Amino acid sequence: MKREYLEKLKFKIAQLTDEEINLRNKYLQDIANGKILGPMTNFQSIDKQWLKYYDLRKISSCENKTVYQSLYDHNKENLKNLAIEYFESKISFAQLLLNIDKTAKSFEQNHVKKGDFVTICAPGIPETVYSFYALSKLGAVANMIAPYFDKNDFVERIADCKSKLLIVMDEFYVEIKDAVERSQIEKVIVVPTLNSSPLKFMKKKYSIDKNRNEIYWNDFIQEGKNRTKSTTVSYEPNIPLTMVYSSGTTGASKGILLSNDSFQNSVNAYFESGLDISSGQKFYQIIPTWYSTGISTSVHLPLICGASIYMDPRFERQIFVKNILKAKPNYCVAPTSMYEGLLSNNMLKNKNLSFFYNAFEGGEPLSKELAERINQVFREHGNNSSIKVGYGQCECGATITTQTDNTEHCNGSVGIPLPNINIQICDNNMDEIMTGNRGQIVVKTPSSMLEYYRNKAESDKYFFIDKFGNKWNCTGDIGYIDKNGNLYVEGRASDYSIINNEFIYNFDVEKIIKNIAGIKLCDVLSNKTEDGYDQLVAHIILDDGVNNQNNMVILSKIQEKIYELTNNINMVPKIFKIWKEFPYAKSGKRDIQKMKRETSDFVYVDFELSKKLVRK
Fold first, then answer.
1. 519: which residues sit within 8 A by CB, 6+ positions away?
2. Is the pLDDT of residue 544 over 80?
3. Are 378 and 385 in contact (CB under 8 A)?
4. What global pTM score does this model have?
5. For the sheet containing 214-216, what is the strand order?
6. Are the beta carbons of 488 and 482 closer than 8 angstroms?
7. Of 28, 136, 327, 544, which has the fewest Cβ atoms less than 10 A away?
8. Residue 293, number of CB atoms within 10 A of its CB
9. Are 572 and 563 in contact (CB under 8 A)?
């Protein structure tokens, strides 16, 4: 198709009314399902082949409500039902709403009002949930900060949003106390880890220092007890709700400002996708709440559906498996590193996992081989469901694409766009390229962030406004869409090396290595030589039982296979490091920076010599 015609077509689409868009979506769906014949452009943002998997009758605009209003309205008739489980404590929706109201009163007693930021440094614990919804009730903003945040960044981000109150779990307070003292925080509300559990007396809690204006959570709640009621703000478009942060691995962290609309559109898209989540079901909340997925998909979504959430702030593989067996959740969103705990765990012996029928993976790459191994574990333990893969980004509100029971599960795919989300694959000039071709993943979503807070330059860089006025999110990821609308994410656009003046994506090399027999996990990173040039370093974990073999033979086979498939010597790593386990950061993701800092136990393999070794 000529570029000129494509631009005219996109211009006409941009002029359509909502009613005309709905009619056009029905037309596209009928084409995709083969009910009618029609011209296809071979550009996925126009053809939207993924529509064939959805019931368009269920697709509608989201509720014009704050997240607090939505929680209340969806559960006011089910107050006796279970909302939260936390270390032997069972909290009903009646108790949840009451605790939210008490928290809101105490915030108001401390002069928190609409538009103010309150900082929360706490994981998935009930007090985080109370605070989040109470701030929504008041029209204030939950400023979610991780305990491993860079200390100077912490001080600067607090100054940016002028936050005066800090809610912090006691175990995290030690990590950030020095930064808090240097910040503008005026009052620290310390939450003992087991504060909401009947087991709280079994654990020694942090001893507060009243001279530093520290106060326990329960004493904070008492401060608002004499207020007769708390304010409930009315819905307004684009009211800021929460702020999460970029990782800051390539510079200072950026505040990702999300609105009530971001959250409401995100959960509404799940409703329309055919996901069946309702009262009586249970969602294991493990993603930390300083990620949008942790608070949106893993808290707000199940709660407004009337499902309960099982909370345990410990982000550990063994605990993850133990909790699955104990709590028997039906749903969970967790990174690959957690599901890896299922692969070699004696706790699963003679256990049934049939209840765990909606296990979603997100946040880390999941290889085809690893997915098959996890699915095999499911099948061996009575669960015929497959692990479902999703893809998202905090800047996009949370989830962009997902697999559901209604879609085909293609190996390597991260699913199809959720309803009301559009995706195009673009070249370096931001022109859309045809189906099946690799390029930048660009997303148009009603769940998008409002901005990088007080950072216009980075916001302008992140958003792309096309010539028709449409705002697109530039994810920074490289991938492609197949003819059925399935998205494949191959890696970050920034994950590349320059080898002998040739641009090489590290993840292309990684993909080949992961498909070689005997390789369990692999990360290909770029290190600098003494002269400042890039060199590829392959960090690998061998399959169980392979470690006793001749490592040099295995590494040589890796080199030979890469050269065989690419015919490109620049893509062949000559430096390797064999790990028993990869290091993981406190975020739960692989600690890439630590791996890059490694200086010992590397194996150097000369490719010409290795070819002779392999051929012997």
1. 513, 540, 541, 542, 543, 558
2. no
3. yes
4. 0.90
5. 214-216, 187-191, 165-169, 117-121, 141-144, 240-245, 255-259, 451-452
6. yes
7. 544
8. 27
9. yes
